[in-house]
Design goal:
With about 250 residues, this protein is an alpha/beta fold. Helices cover about 35% and strands about 30% of the residues. The chain contains seven helices and ten strands. The chain has a five-stranded mixed barrel.
């Protein structure tokens, strides 16, 4: 692959600014919190929803780039990062639980996604599955085991309209492997498949529409803030391990 070394329009990065291994949270604030777990880090750029940090963790150079909410902005970030040589991505996000037994504040590794959004359909036809890269998914599971953190695994329902529920689709997906819903995984997995990137995802649950007793926003935020720390640790460890393993081959 030949890289475009010039300044990228949206993420405002150029050759040398970013590492091949990238964490892609949606929230710019989460991007900062991820970067603050590195041994060293530098803020590279900030433009629109995109905030980019590059640093080092355990001798491995890593980048964090926020993507904003939804598929379009996620695809733009991944495309521009790839032009600068990035090839392995882990989405670190939030999601709503879709199983009644999945408590708010749970860590979930996403192995595949239902393509109920629009961006991925521009890349590949709907018949093509949105599947996480096996190596990245395995690295996430191994990292969780190393850190002695409990994780669940399942499929995500990726959708565009946050405040609209498709009751018919929800009914069809009940009693399946769909564990959560969010707004980026299907796009990220399909862009990865189309462009030849390795992409995985881990999320923390911040809500659950199926639970009978709904918590307050303050209570949900408290639980999510705790799980966010866990999924950040797992994702960073997974990327470091992937990079070190590649360097040993």
């Amino acid at each position: 692959m030949s890289y475009d070394i010039t300044m990228q329009k949206h993420i405002r990065c150029k050759e040398g600014d970013v590492a091949p291994y990238v964490l892609i949270p949606g929230d710019p604030g989460r991007a900062k919190r991820i970067a603050e777990t590195f041994d060293t880090m530098e803020k590279i750029a900030e433009n629109r929803e995109y905030v980019v940090y590059t640093g080092e963790k355990d001798g491995v150079r890593l980048t964090v780039c926020s993507t904003g909410i939804g598929g379009p902005s996620t695809a733009i970030a991944m495309e521009e990062l790839a032009k600068l040589g990035c090839h392995t991505f882990i989405r670190v996000g939030s999601a709503g639980g879709r199983r009644e037994d999945l408590k708010i504040g749970s860590s979930v590794i996403i192995n595949a996604a239902v393509r109920a959004e629009g961006t991925s359909k521009v890349y590949l036809p709907e018949i093509y599955p949105a599947i996480a890269n096996f190596d990245v998914t395995l690295a996430l599971r191994e990292a969780a085991k190393e850190l002695k953190e409990e994780v669940f695994m399942g499929t995500s329902l990726t959708r565009d309209a946050y405040y609209m529920q498709d009751t018919e689709l929800n009914e069809k997906l009940s009693n399946t492997d769909v564990a959560v819903s969010e707004m980026e995984c299907a796009t990220a997995f399909i862009v990865g498949s189309k462009r030849g990137f390795k992409v995985g995802a881990i999320v923390g649950t911040d809500s659950n529409i199926l639970q009978k007793n709904q918590l307050t926003l303050e209570e949900k935020d408290k639980l999510y803030n705790e799980v966010e720390k866990k999924i950040i640790k797992i994702a960073v460890r997974a990327l470091v391990n992937l990079a070190k393993k590649k360097n040993m081959l």
